Amino acid sequence: MKYQEFYDFVIKVHSIAKIGLTFSKDPYAIDNYKELNELSKEMLEKFCDVKFDRPSMFERDIYPTPSISSRTIITNDKGEILLVREANSGLWSMPGGWADLYDSPSQAAFNEVSQEAGIEPKIVRLVALLERTPFKSNKNVPEYVMVFEGSIDHKKFHEHCHETTDVKFFPMDQLPEMSRKMSRDELDRIFEAYRNGTTIFD
Fold first, then answer.
1. What is the mean pLDDT of each run of 10 residues along the chain (202 residues)?
2. Where along the chain do its domains lie?
3. pTM here?
4. 67-201 CATH
């Protein structure tokens, strides 16, 4: 079994255990689910280097479900893409982040661009809805990322938040060093959908 196949198998067992702990009423089944939960957690810690030192699906006995984040692709009249430099890594990304409770998808995208880029965008359309797995890093959680197209009024700039240190436009074929939050393959798929006016998913 390949490493990623093993990882996927253990994640599936871990998820089933948490579902059982959430909904089962049978005391014998609950004991079995507890044991599966601990065994799969031990496997993830020892063999997959997954850390449990922050709130996540691994810490709480809840029905496991992906977290939701947003990213927004904004270009200027030269076809260059707007990127922000992350304060914690020094690398670049499209503005975005976790969606807050009770925000609509477009409001979540608007808020992240406003906070990280210091711009109040108009959210135009959905470009992509992609599933991202935690396999890439032990700091990730299972995630669905919404990617929107946005437009901006260059007169409506304000100070960006502390999470970013710079905001610039870059040619799409001359990107700076990008953060791990988007792989090159994901970016290529998003850019193609953006240029074609289509929406991609999965």
1. 76 85 87 90 76 53 78 94 94 93 91 93 96 59 90 75 91 92 88 96 90
2. 3-47, 67-201
3. 0.71
4. 3.90.79.10
